[in-house]
Amino acid sequence: MTTRTPAERHSDLPEDLESTQVSVGRLSEPERLVARLGELGWTLGVAESLTGGLVVASIVAVPGASAALRGGIVAYATDLKAALLGVDETLLSAHGPVHPRVARQMAEGVRRAVGRDGEPADVGIATTGIAGPVSPDGQPVGTVHIAVSTPLGSRVESVQLGGDRAAIRAEAAALAVRVALEAL
Fold it and tell me: Measured between alpha carbons, how far is 86 from 79 in angstroms, rounded to an integer?
């Protein structure tokens, strides 16, 4: 039996193996989002209502998130959606804060709010909805609107989630990251 040195064993490997990246496990969706933003060289802002900071917290938990994340705004009160994010007050008066167009305007508004030197962030994520236990305006508890805005346009996903308040908020936060990934 012949013993080979590590250099001799290495010579048997395909040449392109050295440039292959090996991961230690499957990346979480927030990790994938931060990685994708890094690949694009894009920045991110997050506007949250019903999720109350859960989306930003999931992104901040990723090492290196500061390379992409500019910041987040928790605009829980309806008037803050207009004052901080530029959501149209007539829209808010007519439909309330839980509406697909409100989510879209929140996502677009957070891009401007967290931008730098007059340039908006590249991506805005927004969440609005009703986590319960009761609905203040008659919409079903679990109604959630997630919006993502990029230089290529905006999209809104509206869903009806089940569960208690904590479950609805957690699923809405996870969905927001997932919708952002799909948009990128």
Answer: 10
Task: Count other C-beta atoms under 10 Å from residue 86's C-beta.
Answer: 15
The candidate with the shortest Cα–Cα distance to 144, out of 125, 131, 163, is: 131
SS (H, E, C) the chain: CCCCCHHHHHCCCCHHHHHCCCCCCCCCHHHHHHHHHHHHCCCEEEEECCCCCHHHHHHHCCCCHHHCEEEEEECCCHHHHHHHHCCCHHHHHHHCCCCHHHHHHHHHHHHHHCCECCECCCEEEEEEECCCCCCCCCCCCCEEEEEEEECCEEEEEEEECCCCHHHHHHHHHHHHHHHHHHHC
Predicted structure pTM score: 0.85
Q: Widest CA span of the chain, in angstroms?
A: 83
For 63-103, the pLDDT digits (tens) are: 999 999 999 999 999 999 999 999 999 999 999 999 999 99
- Residue 93, judged by CB atoms within 10 A of its CB (0-12, 13-18, 19+), counts as exposed
20's tokens: 């292959």
> In angstroms, rounded to a whole number, what is the distance separating the alpha carbons of residues 95 and 93?
6
Over residues 117-138, the pLDDT tens digits come to: 999 999 999 999 999 998 888 8
